[in-house]
Amino acid sequence: MNQSKQSNIRIPISPNFFCDGHDYLLTSASLGGSNLEPTQLSNILLNGTAQEIEPLLRQGICIPVGFDGDCALDRATLIVVGNLTQEEEDQWLGRLAWKLNIPCGKFVVLCGGGYAEDLAHAISGNPPQENYEIFQVFDVPPAEYLVEIYAYQSSLTAYQHLSSLKHSKDFNEDDDLEEEGYDENGNLILVSYIIRLTPLDIEPPFPHLDFHGWCDQFEFREAV
Predict the structure, then answer these.
(1) Please, which domain of life does this record's source organism belong to (predicted)?
(2) What is the biggest distance separating any 2 CA atoms in the chain, rounded to whole angstroms?
């Protein structure tokens, strides 16, 4: 995608980020300013019902997201704070949106279901383990944000959606074979997902939660 129209912040996911699972937790190093301990949040996420997890989202503490496959956000995800390029606006196929409170200015993407030890490490200020990066922390201006996850043609989300449409003109079974990786400047060769943060103005509709209380549904459209 054309990256000529720059927004305030554009950071690719680390090439060493790895998630051997379906789930990701989006949160902040301050856990939304909630005063919750990692063990408390972890217990709700792992053992709570959807009704118990919903208040965490309502308060902007975290956004738990589940995908229908492993490694969805690995190696082809771009974090954007600000505007998308026109091409990025035109070409997304799926979107999942909610809000996140980041008063500390540290946006956290964590692999997994929110295990206490992993969560405590991710918000500790210490770097991830070498060769086992299951979280990444991004510096952003402190604010309450609208968080939008955009899925593009090469993403797992779009592939599964398009493959379910028997006569879709957009479906190409070779899409998942496109080259991933980074150029010599560290820019993504292929963007499958964009996680976009913009200051919250209007609260979006509350996302659908699965039986376990995790966000699991994108809204889809045809690309322009």
Answers:
(1) Bacteria
(2) 50
pLDDT higher than 60, residue 80: yes
Instruction: Report the alpha-carbon distance of residue 139 to residue 54 in Å, rounded.
Output: 26
Task: Give residue-wise pLDDT tens across range 9-22.
Answer: 999 999 999 998 89
Alpha helices per DSSP H over the chain? 38-47, 50-58, 86-91, 116-122, 156-163
Residue 175 clears pLDDT 50, i.e. is over it: no
Which tokens in the block code for residue 54? 């919903």
- The number of beta carbons lying within 10 Å of the beta carbon of residue 3 is 14
Q: What are the start-end ranges of the E strands in the chain?
A: 9-12, 23-28, 62-66, 77-81, 94-102, 106-111, 135-139, 143-151, 193-199, 219-220
Instruction: Tell me the fold of 9-165+177-201.
Output: Substrate Binding Domain Of DNAk; Chain A, domain 1 (2.60.34)
Report phi then psi at 118, rounded to 5. Answer: -65, -40
Look up residue 120 and give its DSSP letter.
Answer: H
| Residue position matching structure tokens 């053992």 | 47
Please, which pLDDT band fits residue 166 given cuts at 50, 70 and 90?
low
What pLDDT, on the 0 to 100 scale, is given for residue 180?
A: 65
| Contacts of residue 27, Cβ cutoff 8 Å, sequence gap at least 6 | 61, 62, 63, 100, 108, 110, 119, 123
**Rounded Cα–Cα distance for residues 85 and 150 (Å):** 13
Token pair, residue 52, equals 């118990």
Which amino acid appears at position 10 of this protein? Answer: R
